[in-house]
Specification:
By secondary structure, the protein is of the alpha/beta class. It has 2 domains: about 1-175, HUPs (Rossmann fold, 3-Layer(aba) Sandwich), CATH 3.40.50.620; about 185-275, Pantoate--beta-alanine Ligase, Chain: A,domain 2 (2-Layer Sandwich). The chain has helices spanning about 5-20, 35-45, 75-85, 95-100, 115-120, 125-140, 150-165, 195-200, 200-215, 220-230; strands at about 1-5, 25-30, 50-55, 90, 145, 170-175, 235-245, 260-265, 270-275. Helix 6 packs across helix 7 and helix 9 runs antiparallel to helix 10. It is globular, with a radius of gyration of 19 Å. The protein binds adenosine monophosphate. Adenosine monophosphate binds near residues 147 and 175.
Length: about 280
Amino acid sequence: MEIIRTSAEMTAWANRVIAAGETIGLVPTMGFFHEGHLRLMRKVGEKANRTVVSLFVNPIQFGVDEDLCRYPRDFPRDCQLAEAEGVDVIFAPEPQEMYLPEAHTRVIVSGLTDGLCGKSRPGHFAGVTTVVAKLFHIIKPHCAVFGRKDFQQLAVIERMVADLNFEVEIIGHPIVRETDGLAMSSRNTYLSAPERQAALCLFRAIGHARRRVRDGLVEAQVLLGEVEGVLHSEGVTIEYASLVDQATLQPQAVLRKGVVLAMAIKVGATRLIDNDNLFEEN
Ligand code: AMP
């Protein structure tokens, strides 16, 4: 496995691979790998001849009060795990390699980024779309895999790719969970043992919502009240709990196919998100 640090070397590698008639699959990450990341790598390995994993803690997608400085990192371990998955290249640029001091361009997807995480994290999605657009130009992937755990991010990237004519197939990957239901996240390492227990309220809320939908509940407002009850029972702070359309991300009054329960909470100082497409088989 190669470790590449500069955009010029990365693009030279991509050009060689493409000239040889091979395809490139990309998994964009911020590192500190868990099983969720590894599944994305396996998925992209099935779809393309060569796999690139980008590992970049992207400063411009963090707000000033957020956890950029303490975001967990373990580059040697990440490299071992990626190599064991058969990854060809880790692209791990420094921030100054990705953002020149004179850089002034942001890629902004409007509308879809107004609600949910976009509301509580102003500027976050502009940071995400800007870095992903740059990665697509530098790495020239034929396909890229993104987790449904960040389901708003996936919708925003799909919109950007369609709107800006990127020739990249975007593949969504189901949420990978711990055996007790907690969605895997690099940020779970911030949780103390009691916080880790409290965080399970997200999965309990999903289970409750699925049961209510299966029993025929149609009023979104009623379900949201109950979901908030489940979350509050663990004393966590709710940033949002919304029932939105999976494509438009607009809040829905009526529960029907295509409605997603999306939640963001704070457990102590740790922000966690989770979501579930309530009408889809797991
Ligand atoms: P991150 O390193 O947290 O930015 O995540 C990199 C990619 O992995 C993103 O596409 C995430 O949506 C995806 N991902 C992270 N955690 C999970 C998970 N538990 N299940 C599925 N995908 C995930």
